[in-house]
Amino acid sequence: MMNIIKAGVVSGFLVLSLSTGNISKAGVAEGVMANRISTAIAHLEAAQKALAANEQDTAQEHMKAATQSSKDIFGGSLEVKAQRGSRAIANARRLAREGDTSGASVTLKEAEEIYKSLLQPEKSGGRGGLN
Question: Domain range spanning residue 97?
Fold first, then answer.
């Protein structure tokens, strides 16, 4: 009887320790993902400023960096939204190359809102965010 109790206690501690490890790993993954999203947002903001200052090359570099950052975002609806954001960035790059800085700026703002919604799920109906 004592052996059964000991086995039960050990099993319980094992389950608790494993589940705690998974929770902390999920928290780390969430932190990494939030950092990647924030990096994409920072590049989008910098690209908008560069477009406003008529610095086409700088804007293109920031848009390219934002696209690269978005490729590192993964996981269900996060990934789908990141792909929408990437398409918006691609459209903004095309518009900027064609000389439509106003259109590029509007499209970058749309992309920025998409990425911000990844960090704030309450604004997107509670789905697709980290928090």
Answer: 24-124
